[in-house]
Write a structure and sequence with these properties.
- It contains nine helices and seven strands, in the order H-E-H-E-H-E-E-H-E-H-H-E-H-H-H-E.
- It is an alpha/beta fold.
- It has one domain: Vaccinia Virus protein VP39 (Rossmann fold, 3-Layer(aba) Sandwich).
- A seven-stranded mixed beta sheet has the order 3-2-1-4-5-7-6, with helices on both faces.
- Strand 1, helix 2 and strand 2 form a beta-alpha-beta unit.
- The longest helix has 14 residues.
- It starts with a helix and ends with a strand.
Length: 225
């Protein structure tokens, strides 16, 4: 995911003095690369998980007051002022309402401000979702949208120069069960008694056709009208 984030960051044109929102900063690995591209700028590192923000704060301590950490839900109006650009990786699919998501991002961007992002798209981790649904009756909490759906939502939220596209990113995973537990199935596990979690993850891993996760990424570029 850090590698994917680096590729997305390359699509964000920066002069070095901007204030950029990292929408879903996680542990701050990609945020670190973003800050290195902003020697005179600042980053608003936003995430819904206090534990992720705490980890990011440790990782990014050397940047001092050039990074502000904000706990927030991207599906609700954002609790901070304008930024020059929005960057995001591996986050938007965790937000149920993409209409609200894009409206909230548009609200903190100036005219012409860019949005560059990548998240899970239509068909993402379909093998894992199918097995999880067979075992629990629930595929998961995600919104894996199509490019057409995404482009329409972005335009309705006030974006122009909109482009969205999918690409497949099949990824072999050596430590499959820990990866499933901490990355893909964590929402499923949160709904289970402790004693059921390890057997569930083991059964999902056993049923997968290979030790490869069938990732499909949704890429997004747009500009605030």
């Amino acid at each position: 995911m850090t590698r994917w984030g680096g590729a997305v960051l390359e699509r964000l044109a920066l002069e070095g003095g901007e204030t950029v929102l990292d929408a879903g900063c996680g542990s701050g690995r990609v945020t670190e690369a973003l800050l290195e591209r902003l020697p005179r700028g600042r980053v608003v590192a936003a995430d819904a998980a206090p534990s992720m923000l705490a980890e990011a704060a440790k990782r990014l301590a050397r940047f001092g007051d050039r990074v502000a950490f904000v706990e927030c839900d991207l599906g609700r109006p954002l609790p901070f002022g304008p930024v020059d650009a929005v960057f995001s990786t591996a986050t938007f699919h965790w937000v149920p309402d993409h209409d609200a998501l894009f409206a909230n991002l548009a609200a903190v961007l100036p005219s012409g401000g860019p949005l560059v992002a990548q998240c899970g798209g239509k068909g993402n981790v379909v093998s894992v979702r199918r097995i999880a649904a067979e075992l629990t009756g629930w595929e998961g909490p995600w919104t894996f949208a199509t490019p057409a759906e995404t482009e329409a939502r972005l335009r309705a939220a006030g974006f122009v120069d909109v482009e969205a596209w999918l690409h497949e990113e099949p990824t072999p995973v050596d430590d499959l069960e820990p990866f499933l537990a901490t990355v893909i199935l964590r929402a499923h596990l949160a709904r289970m008694p402790e004693e059921d979690r390890a057997p569930f993850v083991a059964e999902v891993a056993r049923r997968l056709p290979s030790r490869e996760i069938d990732y499909v990424r949704l890429n997004i570029t747009a500009r605030r009208a």
